[in-house]
Amino acid sequence: MSNFEFLEKIDTDLCRLIKESEKLYRDEYFEQSIVQTRRFAENVCRSLLGERLIPDSTFDECLATLNDIFTKNIRQREMISDLYFLKAQGNASAHGKKVKQDGNIALDCIKRAFELGINYALMLGGDKKLDKLEFSEEVLVLGEKKKKGKLKEKYLAKKKTAKKNNQLYKKKKEQAKQYIYPSLVQNPKSASKMNIIGGLVLIFAIGFYIYINFLSK
Which residue in 13, 33, 97, 189 could disulfide with 25, CB within 3.0 to 4.6 Å? Predict the structure, then answer.
């Protein structure tokens, strides 16, 4: 996944350029990622000039021309601001004597490139819903967006709950055996009482049998 998938239908070359910047950032090549965002910005600038573009003109010259043209609205001024920012940061990274592995600057550049890409797509007639897109650092760092509520996670949670309920049932069952239904062996007093009652019933039954069969005649 990429934050710049929306550019695929607008300009595949620009989309490829900025996706490479994301990949470089993901691999922690921050300097190279910053330089790549500059390349992206320069190509956006040249594309925006259209017929006004002079083939051999530098990025500075292209940007100066576009700056003179883009004076109509806030969106255009935002694009100019992003272009200047990406140009300055890209130059600093490309021509610096020491390599600064600065992830914060690289992240800021990619975010500015994202806003630039949105405005560029809208100017070329892209869907107005693009204006609601939000940049995802999760997609930038992982190359994907984690899905919530996966079936596997739900299954494991359900299994865990079932196991817990089963353990609770067994515990209650053991408590019932011990405290609610005590056996005669576990309770000697109850056993003696039952023996006496049983003996009396047996004597009564024998006496009744003798009376019916022998004494009553």
Answer: 33
Mean pLDDT of the chain, nearest integer: 79
Return phi, psi of residue 54, to 5°: -95, 120
What percent of the residues of the chain are helix, what percent strand, and what percent coil, each to the nearest 5? 75, 0, 25
- One-letter amino acid of 105: I
Contact 45, 69 (CB under 8 A): no
Q: What percent of the chain has pLDDT over 90?
A: 47
Residues 82-114: b if buried by 16+ CB within 10 A, e if exposed: bbebbbebbebbeeeeeeeebeebbbbbbbbbb
DSSP H or E run through 113:
helix 103-123
pTM (predicted TM-score): 0.65
Q: How many beta carbons lie within 10 A of that of residue 27, not counting itself?
A: 10
> Is 37 in contact with 112 (CB distance < 8 Å)?
yes
Are 61 and 42 in contact by the 8 Å Cβ rule? The answer is: no
Core vs surface per residue 132-155: b (16+ CB within 10 A) or e: ebebeeebbeeeeeeeeeeeeeee
Nearest to 48 by CA among 100, 129, 105, 119: 119
pLDDT digits (tens, 9 = 90+) for 120-174: 999 888 888 898 999 999 999 988 876 554 444 543 454 455 555 555 545 555 5
- Look at residue 110 and tell me whether its pLDDT is greater than 60: yes
